[in-house]
Amino acid sequence: MQRACAAALLRKGITIIHNPGHSNDDQAAIGVVTALGAIAEKQADGTLRVTSNGVQPVKDEVNCGESGLGIRMFTPIISLADRTITINGTGSLTTRPMDFFDTVLPQLSVDIQSNKGRLPLIIKGPLKPAPITVDGSLSSQFLTGLLMSYAAAGASDVALTVTDLKSKPYIDLTLKVMEDFGWKVENRNYGSFYFPANASAPKSGELEYTVEGDWSGAAFLLVAGAIAGDITVRGLDVFSTQADRAVLQALMSSGAKISVQTDKIEIGPARLKAFHFNATECPDLFPPLVALAAYCEGKTVIEGAQRLTHKESNRALTLREEFGKLGVQIDLQDDLMIIHGGKVLNGATTYSHHDHRIAMACAVAGLKASSAVTIEAADAINKSYPDFYAHLQQLGATVSLQ
Ligand SMILES: O=C(O)C1=C[C@@H](OP(=O)(O)O)[C@@H](O)[C@H](O)C1
Ligand SMILES: C=C(OP(=O)(O)O)C(=O)O
Q1: I want to staple 86 with a disulfide (CB 3.0 to 4.6 A). Which of 61, 145, 281, 332 is the partner?
Q2: Where does the chain bind 3-phosphoshikimate (predicted)?
Q3: Per-residue pLDDT reduced to its tens digit, 23-66
């Protein structure tokens, strides 16, 4: 949804976005494109109609809410404008690292002033695409922004080189959205991205785009099904490029009873056993998979724990702390997270640390705990999945919101 908003801003014309999200991150993206000159109107049929003539800011300050993707994708896009703009955010975003931009944007003719690598950022473009090398090891989100801004700036016969890229499927998703909107970029084995000479700009006029169902949110429902099902989840594209589709592999390795069809996934409990999974490329799966592993007999090992340090919370530590309250031992050894599963979970009062995925993981873990699980700062879910508790209730869970 956030990528679709950015692409609809960059493309000149009208874009009708079907199945638009309404989470806080989605609303922040709509706010950003509006500040950058697009008109975004919710239609009676539920679609979002975006009318844009490219990046033409109508404000001097843009707020990305709490979205890491939002700020890292939109900063290079905002840099396309020939105007000084302050970029800000809220909550955990104010402490997440943005120093990538301090080193990269000046190489693209953009002036930047940051608060020692944190927000706010004050930038002045216009960005000029150049054949530079960037570090992809902290986050793929910066590259998503550069790819979109290079394309919109008409990059021609230029390669953007990336070292040690992580979260690669998120770049596949970016390239897929760009292709759907009419921009061509050649992915050279995730080491460089080539913008061909004389590539045609996207066609103007009206374009219809449908936002896929979100595998990252759905992963919690699927795990809920494996722990306490049987349930059916619809609305997911089983051929999606989304990183978190990989939750299916982990569920299968755990022995969950699962049937994957093109229009629905049916999932229910079975004897769950510990599994091994590498989440380096899909770090958002850690929280739901920890909830799953808590119910799996034996020691589950998940690789990629170091990817979690700079998320909405330091997620390896927050998972260990909050699942500890439920009686689940988690060990952290370098890049490995080891979850000792299979014992009955006890009820307890947990704390989301204002991290949406920690709140959802605790809620799912509570489904078969010996007594109620309370989640403090439970409204964190609004960042990505405001209907999450309603969906759990719809599936039969008792959820009371205070
Ligand atoms: O591009 C995206 O939409 C995202 C990329 C991932 O971040 P990193 O690339 O920082 O791992 C993911 O964890 C984040 O929730 C969303
Ligand atoms: C949506 C998420 O993150 P970000 O703020 O990095 O976009 C997430 O980590 O689940």
Answers
A1: 61
A2: 3, 139-141, 167, 284, 311
A3: 999 999 999 999 999 999 999 999 999 999 999 999 999 999 99
- Of the candidates 229, 285, 287, the residue with the CA atom closest to the CA atom of residue 257: 229
Which of 75, 95, 383, 385 has most ligand 2 atoms within 8 Å of CB, for mutation?
383
- CATH homologous superfamily of 2-195 equals Enolpyruvate transferase domain (3.65.10.10)
pLDDT at 205 (0 to 100)? 86
Give me the pLDDT at residue 241, please. Answer: 97
ipTM above threshold 0.90:
yes
- CA–chain centroid gap for 392, Å, is 21
Q: Distance between CA 165 and CA 234 in Å, rounded?
A: 32
pLDDT given for residue 215 in this prediction: 98
What per-residue confidence (pLDDT) applies to 257?
98
Which one of the listed residues 26, 214, 284, 355 is annotated catalytic? 284
Which residues does the annotation place in the binding site for 3-phosphoshikimate?
Answer: 3, 139-141, 167, 284, 311
CATH of domain 215-394: 3.65.10.10
pLDDT less than 50: residues of the chain: none
Q: What is the pLDDT of residues 89-111, one digit of tens each?
A: 999 999 999 999 999 999 999 99
Is residue 126 reached through a cis peptide bond, with omega within 30 degrees of 0 on the bond before it?
A: yes
The ligand 2 atom nearest the CA atom of 66:
5
Backbone phi, then psi, for 281, in 5-degree steps?
-90, -5
Residues of the chain with CATH 3.65.10.10: 2-195, 215-394
pLDDT, position 293:
98
Ligand nearest to C-alpha 1:
1
The DSSP string of 332-370 is: EETTEEEEEE-SPPPP-EEE-TT-HHHHHHHHHHGGGSS
Residue 214 Cβ contacting ligand 2 at under 6 Å:
no
Task: Using alpha carbons, list the distances in angstroms from residue 123 to 108, 146, 228, 391.
Answer: 12, 15, 49, 41
Binding residues: 3, 68, 96, 139-141, 167, 284, 311, 315, 357, 383
Confirm whether 284 is a catalytic residue. yes
Q: Is the CB of 63 under 6 A from ligand 2?
A: no
